[in-house]
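Reply to dn_fold:

You asked what the input looked like. This is it:
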Amino acid sequence: MKHAPNLKHLLVLIGFVGICVLASWSVPNRGSEAADAAPWYSIVPPLLAVTLALLTNRLLFSLTAAIVVGGFLDSVPAAPLSIHTWGKGAITGAEYVISSVSDVTNIEIIAFVALVMTMISVVVVAGGLHGIASWLTRFARGPRSTQLVTALMGIVVFIDDYANTMIVGSTMRPMSDRNQVSREKLAFLVDATSAPVAGIAVISTWIGYEVGLFAQAAESLGIARDGYSMFFDALPFRFYCIFMLIFVFMNILSGADYGSMRKAEGRARTGGGVAAADARPMTSKTFSALTYHRDARVLTLTAIFPITALFLSFLASLWIDGGGMQKLSSSIWTVFSIGAWRDVLSRAEHSIFLLAVAAGFGLLVAAACARLLARLSFRVIGKAILAGLRGGLLPIFILILAWSLKAACAGLKTGPFLAAALGEVLSPVWFPALLFLVASVTAFATGTSWGTMAILIPTAIPIAFHLDGEVYGLTTTICLGAVLDGAILGDHCSPISDTTIMSSISSSCDHVHHVRTQIPYSLTVGALAVFCGYIPSALGVPSWVGICVSSFAMFVLFFAILRRKRVSLPGGRPEATR
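and this is what came back:
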């Protein structure tokens, strides 16, 4: 583990420095007009953001420094000895931030993130999510059923990955200990169903972030699609998230483990303890704060009502905004038509605003349920609201800095430069897979999936757009999914990832043990995403074919493990099947 940081730093730096050198060497030789209009140093801000994030593990500082340097590079190179240009550069850097904060669409996204996280806080304090979790635990009667309930809970708590890890892990830990499920396996199930579910859920705290990045890319490239429509376009190509969820359930149902996870599960089943003898379980003071209040009347309806209200109000408003009422005039049954919904969603023009409104409505319903059903005082509800607002500060800051870095790249024409430098070098067949790997390494090194998305989408998507012949085509759509999923893969493998750490905390698992047992599974799914997903899709193979092939490959893998071990764990004790 001590050598991992040096290796990951080297891989990422070689990749980005290689792009820089290749761009600087190739553009002048071709005499591209786009390259002449975009200076070679336009790649410095995103390169600096990645490098500083690697060296410091401080994303906010890294993004801020990149924005400041981007402002200076916009003015200083013209007259480096002039104090006026340095002052103008500082003002330009500030303007990047001001323009990002004042943009109407960005304000709507910020409102959505803040309101959703506040709603989640109220629901948790009122005991709603705990009520759902408690109901599901009735079905956990053995090792396999306990793992299955854990995975199902990870899907049910889809609205936020933080809420997922904290609620699912802490709720299932006593049950998994009683049924001899290792802490490592519990932490994996919690981690593997948090970001993948939240990342592809139609309603989640992730959707506003992803839609916002897509909308900014569409605006800068002149793509006539809103961010929400682009999210649905990329959804079939979210191979890592889809494959990981399939992998989790196949792994549970087969009962077959491999690598260090097999040893951990064997230890737990044969009386060696759910945690290793040298384990140092992680604990957190902040985690105890995000739980249901001691005076709350725990009911599942306290969570079901707000989440349902948010979801249905958003769907209804999208239907109205996209012209669904006109369709209803012809036939009321059109509301059940997939084609009608696809048409309506593609025509909706205010999806982000409607997300914010729906989140606000969900918050009101959550507060009402907390008061009427959970019987909490207004004082307790107010504290939950404040806790949710505080919890939303970090993602909001990341959003603002990501938009500001995008503005800096747009001002320096980073996208056109990279497109001109690499457009004739990279093949559309290999670029999505390469981008998936670059995103994975970057997220692994920095420990953040959101930061990786913020860095790569403004710079990599213009290249994909250029490879598509300056149209919104297949390569661009696949690359949207490749960046998002590559970031999640790297996040799963990173020991400094917040969700990975929180999974260890909520499961009371030794963090090093969690990372060590999870990496082989994540890399397996990542390899399937590359060879069964991104490369075939870039060749024109339908995404559903890749999903089927990958599922078959997983079946063969687990069947081979079972055949070799004859459904028994180390020590000869047969595995419980219930």
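The chain has 29 helices and no strands.
Hope that clears it up.
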